[in-house]
Q: What sequence folds into this?
């Protein structure tokens, strides 16, 4: 109870932090303009708890919160002419699925984790997908790509990085990746390799429009040759795609540098 005798509101913010720690993305919706000022909802992909004062508002806010969870974005939204709400979105770290437990993958893990990515290493070759080689990976799956995709929470914030450089691995990996809503898909290989692979994938039923989602050759053109330089090139492209940028030099870029 509060000091004036009213029942205290549930501490949704504290509960949201605990849910994220358990791997559950969640949004807290708070009325910031309207008759039910301060009323809250706790929204996950599977449930809505609390009330904003009416069933109609709860349904409207719940639907908008699901979109906010998908986008991973917090902010103020006008629900009706008389009601504004603030969506406080507690997202999971963005997932990076690395197909191929190769040397470049080791460098990708080293540099991607400080950027906030949760890393899943996938390789059907048990001798390569080991904790000795990837001690800090969040997930290590000895599996074919299609099996791994079915087990991972791939979302629009996810990146799929295909490094196997072997048609029997990377072509199924690309086809499976196209079935997901990952925001970034990249595949290693020279221009010639990517052109020939594209022809085979089209012959397998993929459309040119689908394959346009695939960044291949993967990475930005920085002339990198070592695994570490290649990893930086790949991560730079992922960041550029996520921010809607082309990855050109800031010296020649136009518009705001940071926005």
A:
């Amino acid at each position: 109870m509060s000091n004036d005798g009213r029942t205290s509101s549930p501490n949704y913010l504290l509960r949201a932090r605990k849910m994220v720690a358990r791997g559950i993305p969640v949004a807290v919706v708070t009325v910031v303009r309207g008759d039910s000022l301060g009323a809250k909802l706790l929204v996950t992909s599977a449930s809505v708890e609390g009330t904003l004062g009416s069933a109609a508002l709860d349904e409207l806010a719940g639907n908008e919160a699901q979109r906010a969870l998908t986008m991973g974005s917090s902010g103020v939204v006008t629900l009706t002419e008389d009601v504004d709400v603030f969506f406080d979105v507690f997202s999971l770290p963005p997932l990076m699925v690395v197909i191929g437990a190769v040397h470049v993958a080791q460098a990708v893990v080293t540099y991607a984790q400080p950027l906030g990515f949760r890393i899943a290493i996938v390789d059907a070759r048990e001798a390569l997908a080991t904790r000795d080689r990837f001690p800090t990976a969040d997930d290590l799956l000895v599996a074919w790509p299609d099996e791994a995709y079915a087990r991972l929470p791939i979302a629009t914030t996810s990146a799929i990085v295909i490094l196997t450089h072997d048609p029997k691995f990377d072509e199924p990996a690309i086809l499976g990746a196209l079935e997901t809503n990952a925001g970034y898909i990249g595949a290693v290989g020279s221009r010639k390799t990517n052109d020939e692979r594209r022809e085979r994938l089209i012959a397998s039923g993929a459309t040119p429009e689908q394959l346009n989602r695939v960044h291949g050759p993967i990475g930005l053109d920085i002339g990198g040759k070592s695994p570490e330089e290649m990893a930086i090139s790949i991560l730079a492209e992922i960041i550029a795609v996520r921010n809607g940028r082309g990855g050109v030099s800031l010296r020649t870029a136009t518009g705001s540098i940071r926005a």
